[in-house]
């Protein structure tokens, strides 16, 4: 399996939408609106990081990161989500590859941290469920 990670392109939008729908179709925790959220963020120019994972010229994964406002007023924090992997490609490390690439890009852009509402979904990236273990220093 050879996976390539790159920034989304305009020609990818329909494939990303279908991928997100498919990835969350059977998820109990989902409201099944994730594709609409990503499209709204894209429309509002708020997708700071939007990466795709490609295998054999097919998009098999996507991650979105957008700015968030903290109650403290601190700037430079971002929200993760959603991260979507096609059902037939899940549990093969593609999500981890996307997360590492997204955090590296966020750090390159000067981001201070990244929050997520469901840290249990990213257990392999968390230390005791609270602190990010990569160089980005993200908190849940």
Overall geometry: globular
Q: What is the number of helices?
A: 3
Give the total of beta strands: 7
How are strands sequenced across the largest beta sheet? Answer: 1-2-3-4-5
Task: Average the pLDDT over all residues and give the rounded result.
Answer: 82
Query: Can you write the helix and strand succession as a string?
Result: EHHEEEHEEE
- Considering DSSP H and I runs of 4 or more, what fraction of the residues is helical? 25-40%
Tell me the radius of gyration.
Answer: 14 Å
Identify the notable features of this structure and list them briefly:
single chain; 140 residues; alpha+beta; five-stranded mixed β-sheet; two-stranded antiparallel ribbon; 3 helices; 7 strands; 26% helix; disordered C terminus
Give the topology, please.
Elements: E1 4-7, H1 13-24, H2 34-43, E2 49-55, E3 58-67, E4 77-85, H3 94-108, E5 113-115, E6 126-127, E7 131-132
Parallel strand pairs: 4-5
Antiparallel strand pairs: 1-2, 2-3, 3-4, 6-7
Helix pairs in contact: 1-2
Briefly say what this structure is:
This protein is an alpha+beta fold and 140 residues long.
Describe this structure in words.
The chain is of the alpha+beta class and about 140 residues long. Helices cover about 25% and strands about 25% of the residues. The protein has 3 helices and 7 strands. It has a 5-stranded mixed β-sheet with strand order 1-2-3-4-5. Helix 1 packs antiparallel against helix 2. The protein is globular, with a radius of gyration of 14 Å. The N and C termini lie far apart (about 30 Å). The C terminus is likely disordered.
């Amino acid at each position: 399996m050879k996976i390539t990670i790159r920034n989304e392109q305009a020609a990818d939008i329909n494939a990303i939408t279908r991928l997100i729908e498919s990835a969350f179709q059977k998820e109990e925790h989902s409201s099944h609106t994730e594709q609409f959220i990503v499209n709204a963020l894209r429309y509002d120019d708020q997708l700071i990081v939007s990466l795709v994972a490609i295998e054999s010229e097919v998009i098999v994964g996507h991650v979105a990161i957008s700015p968030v406002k903290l109650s403290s007023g601190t700037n430079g924090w971002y929200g993760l989500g959603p991260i979507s992997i096609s059902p037939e490609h899940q549990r093969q490390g593609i999500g981890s590859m996307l997360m590492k690439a997204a955090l590296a890009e966020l750090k390159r852009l000067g981001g201070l941290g990244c929050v997520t509402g469901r840290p249990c979904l990213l257990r392999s990236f968390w230390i005791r469920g609270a602190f990010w273990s990569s160089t980005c220093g993200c908190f849940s």
